[in-house]
Amino acid sequence: MDRSVALVLSSGGARGYAHIGVIEALESHGFSISSVTGCSMGAVVGGLYAAGALDKLKAWACGLERTDVFKLYDFGFSSQGLIRGERVFKQLESNIPDCNIENLKIPFKALATDLNAQEEMVFDHGSLYRALRASSSIPAVVMPAEFEGLELLDGGILNPLPLNHVEKKEGDIVIAVDVNARIPYECPPKSVEEMADDKKYTQLLDNLARKWFKKENLPTRNTRKKLGFFDLMMKTIDMMQDKITDNMIVSHPPDIVVQISRACCSTFDYYKAAQIIEEGRLATERALEKYQTQADAAS
Question: Which domains occur in the chain, in start order?
Answer without folding.
Answer: 4-190+255-298 (3.40.1090.10)
